[in-house]
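Comment thread on ticket #2218

A.B. wrote:
> Attaching the input chain for the structure job we discussed in standup.
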Amino acid sequence: MASHPDKDDEYESTQFYGLAANPHGIFALYSFRSAQQFHKFWGAGSGRDFALGAMQTAYDRSKTAEEIVRIGLEAAAEFDSATGAPFEIHTIPLATAKATRRKK
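C.D. wrote:
> Ran it. Output below, let me know if you need it in another format.
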């Protein structure tokens, strides 16, 4: 299957762009049935390059994932005119390795 659009494609894109995160990693899912794995964090939108740069800089010195995200969002809002506050950040607890093994 092709992972990019072509006028002769026998199928249409799924019109889906999303994120899947699980114990195996972070995966960006794209409309032409392709995926990309990320090992630390992921970003989307017009300010994503600013956010990713700021998050990379903050990664080793931040105490929480929420702190890294907030730094990325603030950088995107500062340098990208299409990004702006307020931001809504949601957190979820991570499953421990022991808890993950029990569910199998």
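A.B. wrote:
> Thanks. Noting for the ticket: The CA atoms of residues 26 and 40 lie 8 Å apart.
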